[in-house]
Design goal:
This protein has 397 residues and is of the alpha/beta class. It has a single domain, classed as Rossmann fold (3-Layer(aba) Sandwich). The strands form two sheets. Strands 2-1-3-4-5-8 form a six-stranded mixed sheet, covered by helices on one side. Strand 6 and strand 7 form a beta hairpin. Helix 5 runs parallel beside helix 9 and helix 13 packs across helix 14. The protein is globular and about 60 Å long. The structure holds 2-acetamido-2-deoxy-beta-D-glucopyranose (6 copies). The site of one 2-acetamido-2-deoxy-beta-D-glucopyranose (NAG) has 4 residues, from helix 12. One 2-acetamido-2-deoxy-beta-D-glucopyranose binds next to loops. Keywords: Glycoprotein, Hydrolase, Signal.
Length: 397
C-alpha cells in the first residue's frame, strides 16, 4: 500500500498549495441553468475509488507519479488524475471535494468528502499496520459527517468571519445536498485475500448490507434526502485481485481475461445492494435513491478496451516487474528501490496513461474514470434512469 515518506521543503510545499488553489479554483465552473435539483453540496462516503485526500491527511502522503496527469503533483487521489467523483462535482457546477480530514486549505462550502482509501463497510480486526485496511470504516465516516454538520453549523453561525468563506451556509443545506456512496470493494478483498471461497464471502454480505442500510438511515435522520449509490467494480478484472488470488486467476476466465469467480462475488454483492436500496426506497418516505451500475460501466471498458481506444486493460500503467499485469504486490506505483546504493523509482508510470485502464493495479486512470463518468452521468446505467443532475427526482418505487 503506502510507500516511503519523503521530506519536502517548505518552499516547495507553499508553491504546491498555490498551484493546487489555482487548479481547484478553475474547477469551480459556472453553474448551468439546467440544474433542476440545484444541489448546493455533495457529501461523499466511500473508499479509495473516491477518496480525495482523507487517507494521506492521516497516513503517509500520496507520492509522485500519482496526480501527474491532471494536478501535476500528488493530490490525495489514488490515480494519475481526477476520480469519477471529481467529474460528478464538476458536472453539478460544484468545487472538487476536499477531504473532511484535510485541515490545510480546504473549502467545504460545497460539500465534504469522508471517503478513505482502504476503507471498508464493516470494521476490520487489526490496525492499519497489521491488516492494511483503513480505520476510517463507514461507521466512522458517518460519525465524521455528523460532526461536520453539527460543528460547521455552530462555527458558521457563532464564529463567522473567515469560516463563512470556507464552510457551507447551514440553511437547508443538509436536506438539499446530494449524498453519494461508493464502498464495498475492500470488504470483498478482506475475505478473498484471506483465501475465502466465494460462498464464504457471500455469507457475510448480508451483514455488510445491514451496515449500509443503517448508515443511510442515519443520514436520512439527519435530514439527507438525495442518495446516489454506486455498486462495486468487477473485482475479477483488477490486476491486484488477480495477483493476490493466483488460484482464482488461473481458474475459469471470461473473454476479457477476468476471474469468473471473483466477478461472481462482486455481482452477488451488487444484487444485494440493489435490493437494499430498493427496500430503503420503500421505508424512507420523501427520499430519492439512484442505484448506479458502475460495475457495468467498468466491465464495458475492460471488455471492449481495444475498441474504445485503450490498451490492454489488465496491464498496469504504473507498476513494476513486467509480465502479464506489470504488477508487483511489494513494489507499487511510486515505490523506490535501492540499486547499487542509489534510490531509484521502481514503480514507474507508462508513457500513455490516457490509453491505460489500470493506473496502479488497484485504481483506474483518469481516462478510465472519465469513461465511467460518461457512462453513468446521463442515467443510462441507473435505476431509476435519471441523470445525475436530476437525482433529486429519482422517486421510482
Ligand atoms: C473480529 O473479531 C471478533 C472477535 O474475535 C469476531 O467476532 C469478528 O467476527 C471479527 N470480525 C471480522 C470482520 O472478522
Ligand atoms: C451537536 O452539538 C451540540 C452542542 O455542541 C451537542 O449538544 C450535540 O450533542 C451535538 N450532536 C452531535 C450528534 O454530535
Ligand atoms: C470557497 O469556495 C466557494 C465556492 O467556490 C467560493 O465562493 C469561496 O470564495 C471559497 N473560499 C475561499 C476562502 O477561497
Ligand atoms: C492463501 O493460500 C496461498 C496458497 O495456498 C498461500 O500461499 C497464502 O499464504 C494464503 N494466504 C493467506 C492469507 O492465508
Ligand atoms: C435492480 O433491481 C431492479 C428491481 O428492483 C431491477 O429492475 C434492475 O434491473 C436492477 N438493476 C441492476 C443493475 O441489477
Ligand atoms: C550495479 O553494479 C554492478 C557492479 O558494478 C553492475 O554490474 C550492475 O550493472 C549495476 N546495476 C545497475 C542496475 O546499474
Amino acid at each position: 500500500m503506502a510507500s516511503a515518506h519523503r521530506c519536502t521543503s517548505m518552499a516547495t510545499k507553499l508553491l504546491m498549495s498555490v498551484v493546487l488553489l489555482v487548479v481547484l479554483k478553475r474547477s469551480a465552473g459556472a453553474r448551468s441553468d439546467d440544474s433542476p435539483c440545484g444541489f448546493p453540496a455533495i457529501f461523499n462516503l466511500g473508499d479509495s475509488n473516491s477518496d480525495t485526500g482523507a487517507f494521506p491527511a492521516l497516513f503517509p502522503a500520496v507520492q509522485p507519479p500519482y496526480g501527474r496527469t491532471f494536478f501535476g503533483m500528488p493530490a490525495g487521489r489514488q490515480s494519475d488524475g481526477r476520480l469519477t467523483i471529481d467529474f460528478m462535482a464538476q458536472n453539478l457546477g460544484l468545487r472538487y471535494l476536499n477531504a473532511y480530514l484535510d485541515s490545510l486549505g480546504s473549502n467545504f462550502t460545497q460539500g465534504a468528502n469522508f471517503a478513505s482509501a482502504a476503507g471498508t463497510i464493516r470494521r476490520v480486526n487489526g490496525s492499519l499496520w497489521t491488516s492494511g485496511y483503513s480505520p476510517i470504516s463507514l461507521d466512522v465516516q458517518i460519525w465524521q459527517l455528523q460532526q461536520f454538520i453539527n460543528r460547521s453549523q455552530f462555527v458558521y453561525n457563532n464564529i463567522g468571519g473567515i469560516y463563512r468563506e470556507i464552510l457551507p451556509n447551514p440553511e437547508n443545506l443538509i436536506s438539499k445536498a446530494l449524498y453519494t456512496l461508493d464502498i464495498g470493494q475492500n470488504d470483498l478483498t478482506v475475505g478473498y485475500f484471506d483465501n475465502m471461497t466465494t460462498k464464504q464471502v457471500e455469507a457475510y454480505v448480508p451483514d455488510l448490507m445491514e451496515r449500509i442500510s443503517s448508515a443511510i438511515q442515519t443520514v436520512y435522520n439527519l435530514g439527507g434526502r438525495y442518495f446516489w449509490v454506486h455498486n462495486t467494480a468487477p473485482l475479477g478484472c483488477l490486476p491486484y485481485a488477480l495477483t493476490f488470488r493466483p488460484d482464482l486467476a488461473a481458474a475459469e476466465k471470461d473473454g476479457a481475461g477476468c476471474s469468473v469467480e471473483l466477478n461472481a462475488g462482486a455481482r452477488f454483492f451488487n444484487a444485494r445492494l440493489n435490493e437494499t436500496v430498493d427496500r430503503l426506497r420503500a421505508t424512507l418516505p420523501g427520499a430519492a435513491f439512484t442505484y448506479v451500475d458502475v460495475y457495468a460501466a467498468k466491465y464495458r471498458l475492460i471488455s471492449q478496451a481495444k475498441k474504445l481506444g485503450f490498451g490492454d486493460p489488465l496491464r498496469v500503467c504504473c507498476g513494476y516487474g513486467g509480465g502479464q499485469y506489470n504488477f508487483d504486490r511489494d513494489i507499487r506505483c511510486g515505490d523506490k528501490m535501492e540499486v547499487n546504493g542509489t534510490s531509484v523509482l521502481a514503480g514507474k508510470p507508462c508513457e500513455d496513461p490516457f490509453r491505460s485502464v489500470s493506473w496502479d493495479g488497484v485504481h483506474f486512470t483518469e481516462a478510465a474514470n472519465k469513461f465511467v463518468f460518461d457512462q453513468i452521468v446521463d442515467g443510462a446505467l441507473s435505476d431509476p434512469p435519471v441523470p445525475l443532475r436530476r437525482a433529486c427526482q429519482a422517486k421510482g418505487q
